[in-house]
């Protein structure tokens, strides 16, 4: 069994399954979610996390589409297979187009229309607390509370999403 700290957030893009992590880790576990165009896939993952003892859903709200990652385009970036999507969609379906395969995958799967109504949708399918990851303004922090989020994670996704995103330390203030 992996030795774990007291709290972990399992990435949506993890190469280990929700079930494997649950059975090998005693930490309090949160599950990080992206909203797919195909809501059934996101809902299935939420249910799996819930039934395996994950205590909260971390909805990443700063990635309705992937930022333009020029190094990924140059290097024809391929992400490792997402173990949790096995059986839900093809996970090793790498096309031969030039450029970032990760960007193409994100474009095909992520819902670019992600908005506050999706927090409502998520609340309707789970009783777990929902944290919104990727909030960088006070205005959005207030909206998050109004939308029923249990908490926020102030983050700019490591500045990988929007060029000129504010540093999180200044957003925090
Ligand atoms: C290689 C890599 C993969 C990442 N994958 C995810 C991911 O699957 N989900 C997510 O919400 N954020 C992901 N992130 C962003 C990180 O969770 C985090 O936001 C970033 O490292 C910046 O840290 P901060 O949020 O504490 O400022 C990834 C970052 C890197 C560098």
From TrEMBL:
EC number annotated for this UniProt entry: 1.1.3.15
One GO CC term, this protein: peroxisome
Pfam family, one: FMN_dh
Record flagged with keyword Transmembrane helix: no
Cofactor: FMN
Enzyme class: oxidoreductase
Compartment(s) where it occurs, according to its Swiss-Prot or TrEMBL record: Peroxisome
Broad class of where this protein is predominantly found: other
GO molecular function terms attached to this record: (S)-2-hydroxy-acid oxidase activity
Source taxon at top rank: Eukaryota
Keywords: Oxidoreductase, Peroxisome, Signal
Protein name, UniProt field: (S)-2-hydroxy-acid oxidase
Organism from which the protein derives: Aegilops tauschii subsp. strangulata
């Amino acid at each position: 069994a992996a030795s774990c700290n007291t709290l972990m957030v399992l990435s949506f893009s993890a190469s280990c399954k929700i079930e494997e992590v649950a059975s090998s880790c005693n930490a309090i576990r949160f599950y990080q979610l992206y909203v797919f165009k195909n809501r059934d896939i996101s809902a299935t993952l939420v249910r799996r996390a819930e039934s395996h003892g994950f205590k909260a859903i971390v909805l990443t709200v700063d990635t309705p589409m992937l930022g333009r990652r020029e190094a990924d385009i140059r290097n024809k970036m391929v992400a490792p297979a997402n173990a949790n999507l096995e059986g839900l969609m093809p996970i090793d379906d790498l096309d031969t187009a030039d450029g970032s395969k990760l960007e193409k995958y994100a474009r095909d799967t992520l819902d670019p229309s992600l908005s506050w109504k999706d927090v409502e949708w998520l609340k309707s399918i789970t009783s777990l607390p929902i944290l919104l990851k990727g909030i960088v303004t006070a205005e959005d922090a207030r909206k998050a509370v109004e939308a029923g989020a249990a908490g926020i994670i102030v983050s700019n996704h490591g500045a990988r999403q929007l060029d000129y995103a504010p540093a999180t330390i200044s957003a925090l203030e």
